[in-house]
Amino acid sequence: MHGSPLIDTCSRLVEGAVSRGFDEVAILATRTDRTMVKLANSQPSVTQRWRGISLSMYLVKEKRIFILEYRPAGGDVSEKEFDTILEHATVVQESPFYAPLPEPKPVEKIEGVVDKRVLEYIRDPVELAELSIEAAHRERIDYVAGTIDLWYTEKALATSKGVALEEGLTGLQVYLRAFSEPDGSGQWSTCSTSIDIREIEKTSITASRYAAESKGRRSVEPGRYDVVLSPLVFGNILNLVARMSSAFNVFTGLSIFMKNKPGDQVASERLTLIDAPRDRELPGATSFDDEGVPTYNKPIIDKGVLRTLLHNSKTASKLGVNTTGNAGWISPRPWNLVVEPGSYSIDELIREVKRGLLITNNWYTRLQNYVEGAFSTITRDALFLIENGEIARPVEKVRIADRLPSFLKNIEALGREAHRIMWWEVRIPSKLPYVLVRDVGISKHML
User: Which of 56, 189, 319, 406 makes an SS bond possible with 175, Cβ 3.0 to 4.6 Å?
Assistant: First the structure.
């Protein structure tokens, strides 16, 4: 088998592990070329560059599973770890989740996920940094901060079943936070597999507008409120929900879906949440999972009904179903998230609220109980009181404290414009609109 140096390395390691006595082997290699520009005080402050290879190894001996991850120094890949593992294999228990690695299947590669302009900006990102800063200052702000992250990733997978696959993808993630003295701040984000100058400008402008409009904040009383959530906040909460759709998390008690089965109504009929690994706009796109299974788009929740738990071959074997192409050697995972939009503009969503809040950003989301879905999260940046269908005034930060099942069922309306979102509180690339949720618990944020 001969291909790129990356797939050749994977194949060599598979052969080496099998020759030493392992029953099944999968080797996943990832080579990344990445540049991140950090902005502070409306200036590029730090530019960091990374280039290297990471290796993940999946090894099975008599249904005992071993997983290694490491970054070989200087790119040199050694097979000595195989002998060390074999020495200790007999003292490890058989995995209760063991299932054979899948046989090879035809994989249709996703086209159009490598943008030459991203490769150019990886080498020199100054123009994008300057554009972001200039666009932010078109609004009434004092300064802007944030990051511009660009990368090109090649991955290769080889298994002892005969899988030999590789693909490449470019990615972009931008988040900007603007400040307008004395207390105004706003944030926005975007992500993509390609360069979209207008979207980058829009990210800066949106953050700055929220900053300028949120000055002069006053307190708001705790209680139950109807809330309009930006895609940043909606994405953060749906990232939690999507991870809970992993069958492994259901098995291990880390999911609100423990008492549900596909076909159960778990959310408002207005919500359709899709795992979309073949959405070429989002940088989680992939043609195959970590077991070499072809990926496909599928609804997790379809018009409020739980349709799909995400599976790898192990969790699928436990339930007697097919894998969904979401491996994860240990836990299945979503690749990209897409919410089908509704028919409302942002202003129309606000007009549906008699007394409530427009929440544009959040962080420090915590789960107090995974099975019941009890969670809390702190608002960040621009936050507005809504009265009689209009923005009344900016208000100080609060805490959202509610339960995911009731939150999902209280979704009332969705915006018609979808936004691509990704930052450190929304790690799964997501495409989703603003949303109106009724009767959400709001409490004081305690410093």
Answer: 189
Give the integer Cα–Cα distance in Å for 379 and 111. Answer: 38
Burial 57-87 (b: 16+ CB within 10 A, else e): bbbbbebbbbeeeeeeeeeebeeebbeebbe
Contact (Cβ atoms closer than 8 angstroms) between residue 430 and residue 235: yes
Q: Are 200 and 190 in contact (CB under 8 A)?
A: yes
Mean pLDDT of the chain: 95
* Residue 206 tokens, joined: 């949106």
Q: How far apart are CA 173 and CA 155, in angstroms?
A: 19
pLDDT tens column, 155-177 = 999 999 999 999 999 999 999 99
Domain boundaries, the chain: 5-211, 217-447
Question: What is the spatial distance between Cα 75 and Cα 227, in angstroms, rounded to a whole number?
Answer: 50
Question: Distance of CA 355 to CAs 208, 227, 388, Å?
Answer: 25, 9, 6
Q: Any idea what DSSP says for residue 94?
A: P
Taking the CA of residue 173 as centre, how many other CA atoms within 13 Å lie in the half-sphere pointing to its CB?
21
Nearest CA to 148 out of 112, 177, 180, 168 is that of 177
What is the 8-class DSSP label of residue 260? -
Q: Which helix (H) or strand (E) holds 391?
A: strand 390-394
Q: Of 418, 405, 412, 447, which Cα lies nearest the Cα of 225?
A: 412
Task: List 90's β-bridge partners, or say none.
Answer: none
Find the angle CA(15)-CA(9)-CA(289) to the nearest 5 degrees. Answer: 90
Q: Is 5-211 a CATH 3.90.660.20 domain?
A: no
Could you say which residues of the chain have pLDDT below 50? Answer: 1
For 315, the token pair is: 């969790």
SS3 103: coil
pTM above 0.70? Answer: yes
